[in-house]
Structures are given as C-alpha cells and as structure tokens.
Amino acid sequence: MQDVNSLIEKYVNEPVWAVVGASNSSTKYGNRIYLKLREAGYTVYPVNRRERLIEGDTAYSSLTDLPEPPAVINMVVPPVEAPAVVEQARAAGAQAIWFQPGAESDAAAKWAKDHGLDVIEACILVQLALMPRSDGSELSGPPSQARPTPSPDPTTSTR
C-alpha cells in the first residue's frame, strides 16, 4: 500500500481531474479548487447537478457524462453524497478519489479501496501551494510544462 505522500505525488501530477461540487460561488471551495486547477494547467471538468456552466465552462451533471476519464476525482460534497460519487468515479474510469477536508466518508473510502481506487484525504489547495515552480516561486500564473513534485505535508492522511 502506498503512503499518503507517494499517492499525493502520483496524482498531483495527473493532468486530467474532475471536481465534484464545483461551484460558481467564489466563497465556496468548489469554486476555488476548480479555478486553481484550471489556472495551474490541468484539464479539469466541473461536476454539478444544478449548474449548466461553472466559471463559463460546461458543467456536467455526472462523472459518467465527462468527455474523457479523469484520473482524479476531487470531492467537495457533503459526506452523505460521497458513496454515490465514488461509484460514479469507478464507472467513469477514475483512478483516485481525492477527498477534500469535510467531504470524507469512511464507507465511501472503504468501497473505493475495495474496488481498486486510490484514496487521498488532503486539501489540493495546500498541495498546490506547496509545489515550488521551476523558477523557485510558488505556483501562480501560467504553469510550467512539467508539474513540480509536492513537498511532504504531515497534515494529510489517507485511509
């Protein structure tokens, strides 16, 4: 079993993500995460059952509606919604579930692991902030071609 830091390193370098719970509200983490991933150069798909557009981009009502399989599903939804999202993630061909703080679900994490998905519980915003750019600055502005390796973060956990 991989430790949390190696899982974070592996998946932070995957170029295709989906954010379940993406939002147009600038006060919500679903918005901040979606915009930060997009700004950092990821191909990122917003998933929201109630919105047609998120920040001007097509929003999808389900992970199975995405035009390509995302490697990572970033979850910014209440834990009660997590089991259904995890099942959709597997059906959509995802490799990992990235639970944002507050979205964790023991049942969903266990189901994901039992069905071959990696599980990460950490804040992607923190991980992106920890990643130094090749020029020595933190990630902001246009991304470099190669994604830098994240620094270990002892505040993260995986199940």
From TrEMBL:
<dbReference type="InterPro" id="IPR036291">
    <property type="entry name" value="NAD(P)-bd_dom_sf"/>
</dbReference>
<feature type="domain" description="CoA-binding">
    <location>
        <begin position="11"/>
        <end position="103"/>
    </location>
</feature>
<dbReference type="InterPro" id="IPR003781">
    <property type="entry name" value="CoA-bd"/>
</dbReference>
<feature type="region of interest" description="Disordered">
    <location>
        <begin position="134"/>
        <end position="159"/>
    </location>
</feature>
<protein>
    <submittedName>
        <fullName>CoA-binding protein</fullName>
    </submittedName>
</protein>
<dbReference type="Pfam" id="PF13380">
    <property type="entry name" value="CoA_binding_2"/>
</dbReference>
